[in-house]
Amino acid sequence: MAQVALDRIEQGAQNLLLNCAGAQAGDRVLLVGEVGENLYFETELCDAVAEVAANLGMKPEVVLAKPVSDATEFPETVNSAMQRADRTIFFSRLGDQVRFSLPEGKAKAVMTYTLGRQYLAAPFASADFNVMKQMHDALLDLILNAKEYSITGACGTNLQSRIKPGRADAVADFALELFPVMIFPPVNCFEMNGTLAIKHFVTSSSTRAYEDSTLVLDQPILARVENSRMVDFDGPAELVARLKSQLERAAALTGGDPYLINSWHTGINPNTFFEGDPYDDLELWGTVAYGSPRYTHLHAAGIDPGDIAFHMMDATISFDGQVVWDEGRFVFLDRPEIQAMMTEEQRGLLNSSVLHDIGL
User: Fold this and answer.
1) Are the beta carbons of 270 and 333 closer than 8 angstroms?
2) Residues 313, 139, 107, 50: what is their CA dihedral angle, to the nearest 10 degrees?
3) What pLDDT sits at residue 347?
4) Quick one: average pLDDT of 152-161?
5) What are the residue ranges spanned by the domains of the chain?
6) What is the pLDDT of residue 7?
7) What distance, in Å, lies between the first and last C-alpha atoms of the chain?
8) pLDDT, position 215
9) What is the tens place of the pLDDT at every residue in 295-351?
10) Full DSSP string of 305-350
11) Are 320 and 252 in contact (CB under 8 A)?
12) What is the structure's pLDDT at 2?
């Protein structure tokens, strides 16, 4: 790997360790990676970040573990290592599975979405975490102070919803920090009504792994939504039957309502990218692509957050009439008060004109 790439990896790793995890010299930093078959994350990531951590005076420890089906099977080896760490950083789907449910412990935990060293070396991960977190907090403040929102798209989606007062009811906060800044806490659906266009495919929500979790759709299906519940489907009968079966099978994992839409979020990291064909592994694609402003992600089917994800591209989303995403462009970044948070270099990386290829 060229020296310039190594330099960029170090910049991304420092952003992760210092700015996101808040680690300091002397801290024990646990790096959890994947082992086994069908890996999503490069195992070399742990060693690369461990080297940077050691150079910063930290005490890194690397633990590799197989991904599991859900949080109830969380490996004891990882849990024990977390008890002796000051910071835990996941380069593993394990972190994704406990993103809503990780119990509070001694170690601050971070879930990363840098699948490989090329992600850690890119602006995707090296753009200043603190600046992006400020932007994230300003957006969340706007959402929490809004009364309603709309989600529309050329695909046929046209949804309106209210927002419950109070943070605990309005959004679903994460149990760990996400790196890089990818999304805001999912907005809970409250009296959502309208039409949802279900296109391309559905996947799992990444909370639990289960067989045949992806369903490819060769034609769109329009779902009529009443009070946050899909009550009717318009599309080819055989395809609608397959979709209903998928929803019911996913909801059976928790015993919840197969047709409930629980929450949604849209990407806020304009430097998100994906190389390759998404259809080679749609779950892998979704692990990182959901950070793109082009991508709106809805959770459904079962107890919150649900075990189905719908995927909408290039949405226009408004809160109380204020457009925040315009056909997939995160125009919130262009607001003068947001641009004022950044240096000139950062403004070149964080604006609505920056949109990288995510394969669709």
Assistant:
1) yes
2) 60
3) 95
4) 95
5) 3-126, 129-349
6) 73
7) 29
8) 94
9) 999 999 988 888 999 999 999 999 999 999 999 999 999 999 999 999 999 999 999
10) T-SEEEEEES-EEEETTEEEEBTTB-GGGGSHHHHTTS-HHHHHHS
11) no
12) 39
- The amino acid present at 157, given as its one-letter code, is T
Phi, psi (5° rounding) for residue 174?
-85, 155
Q: What is the DSSP string of 119-181?
A: HHHSHHHHS-HHHHHHHHHHHHHHHHT-SEEEEE-TTS-EEEEE--SSHHHHB---SSEEES-
CB 29 within 8 A of CB 53: yes
Q: Which residues are bridge partners to 150 per DSSP?
A: 160, 318
Pairwise CA distance, residues 227 & 238, whole Å: 26
H/E stretch holding 104 reads: none
The verdict on domain 3-126 having CATH code 3.40.50.2300 is yes
Provide Rg for the chain, Cα atoms: 20
- Give the tens place of pLDDT for each residue, 195-209: 999 999 999 887 778
Closest C-alpha among 57, 58, 331, 302 to residue 204: 302
Contact 204, 309 (CB under 8 A): yes
Match 């959770």 to its residue by tokens.
299
Spatial neighbors of 112 by CB under 8 A, at least 6 apart, are 16, 45, 89, 90, 91, 95, 178, 179
Helix (H) or strand (E) holding 289: helix 282-289
CA angle 307, 309, 311 (to 5 degrees): 180
Query: What tokens appear for 162 in the block?
Result: 């209210």
pLDDT at 360: 81
Would you say 196 and 223 are in contact if contact means Cβ atoms under 8 Å apart? yes
Sign of the torsion angle spanned by Cα atoms 12, 15, 21, 25: positive
What band does 1 get if pLDDT is binned at 50, 70 and 90? very low
Rounded to whole angstroms, how far apart are CA atoms 32 and 19? 19
The count of other CB atoms within 10 Å of the CB of residue 237 is: 8
SS3 state of residue 54 = helix
